[in-house]
Design brief:
The chain is an all-alpha fold. Helix 5 packs antiparallel against helix 6, helix 8 runs antiparallel to helix 11 and helix 13 packs across helix 14. 30% of the residues are buried.
Length: 326
């Protein structure tokens, strides 16, 4: 509980510092949302009027305080350009982005874990070379180029096979789950294949190290085959390391998905953020950046707590340090 309390306190402090950093950095950048809304032929009086309307003429400390007070009450503000609540826009776009990330992660795990374990189990040098090549090529392919290849192969209308839609998302959203899922398959494959190659490489390294440990030798001495010992013992011992890798991969997918969303014309958070940055919509951008960065911090907190729960050595070190402090 002491460890959890320290991590939660650090998480809250990081959120406060993060919010201040996002707020200050956006105010330092050039551009004025009032000038964007008013247009190129607007008079200085019109721009000043718009700045007063959106509260941009107030002291920065007051603007930051109002923003944080609204965040604590679930109010992310109103878009200065679109005139709609930012929280509603984020919720609508997140219904596309987060299912895409989860589906990409499932594809990456389905590729990386089995192939990583197979690379450890095989004794054939040619197969080992093949697995090594897959890990290198899969991790080196840029998401943009890989997405274009998948479009040329599988998209309807222009692809060779014509199985899946290449752009857009149903206007009805998840009310038609079959159509919605089909629109996410190609983008998820684009991100999942690259991430799967990274998970495969880390799985091969982590499980390979554990496969040569005394625990695996003991399991084989007790009657297990090498395959059983690797899958039941080595893989379980490497779980703590793999959880950290999966957490980092999940975080990387958030940034990678933004490129994929624009390639496949998906109305997700990435497309929303790019549009709002282009419109200099500070009210929307600061909330979007803060929530994305807060999700990174939350993911790190979850991985840290899970890693400690899975690794008994960290539990023991925590007990020892607690006794030493007492």
């Amino acid at each position: 509980m002491r460890f959890v309390g320290k991590r939660l306190a650090l998480f809250v402090a990081a959120l406060v510092g993060l919010s201040a950093l996002v707020f200050v950095m956006l105010r330092v950048l050039p551009g004025d949302v009032a000038a964007v809304i008013a247009g190129t032929n607007a008079t200085p009086e019109r721009i000043a009027s718009l700045r007063a309307e959106f509260g941009l003429d107030r002291p920065l400390v007051a603007q930051y305080g109002d923003w944080m007070a609204g965040m604590l009450h679930g109010d992310l503000g109103v878009s200065a350009v679109g005139g709609r609540p930012v929280a509603r826009q984020i919720a609508m776009r997140a219904a596309v982005t987060f299912p895409l990330i989860v589906l990409s992660l499932l594809i990456a795990l389905a590729i990386g874990l089995p192939l990583g374990c197979a690379a450890v189990l095989t004794r054939n040098p040619r197969l080992r070379g093949l697995f090594h090549g897959i890990a290198i090529v899969g991790g080196a392919v840029p998401a943009l180029w890989g997405g274009l290849l998948l479009i040329l192969l599988f998209s309807r209308g222009t692809g060779l096979l014509g199985l899946l839609p290449a752009q857009g998302f149903p206007a009805t959203g998840w009310a038609t789950p079959g159509k919605a899922m089909s629109c996410l398959l190609l983008p998820a494959l684009t991100t999942g294949i690259t991430a799967g190659a990274s998970i495969m490489r880390y799985t091969r390294a982590a499980v390979g190290d554990m496969a040569s440990s005394q625990a695996v030798d003991m399991a084989m001495a007790c009657g297990m085959t090498r395959k059983q010992a690797v899958l039941r013992v080595a893989l379980r011992l490497a779980t703590a390391q793999l959880v950290s890798v999966v957490g980092l991969t999940f975080a990387q997918m958030i940034t990678g998905v933004m490129v994929v969303e624009n390639l496949f014309a998906l109305p997700g958070l990435g497309a929303m953020l790019v549009t709002d940055v282009g419109n200099r919509d500070l009210i929307a951008v600061q909330s979007e950046l803060f929530l994305l960065a807060a999700f990174f911090l939350l993911l790190g907190l979850v991985v840290d707590l899970t890693h400690r729960a899975l690794d008994p050595r960290l539990k023991h070190s925590g007990v020892v340090s607690g006794k030493a402090e007492a």
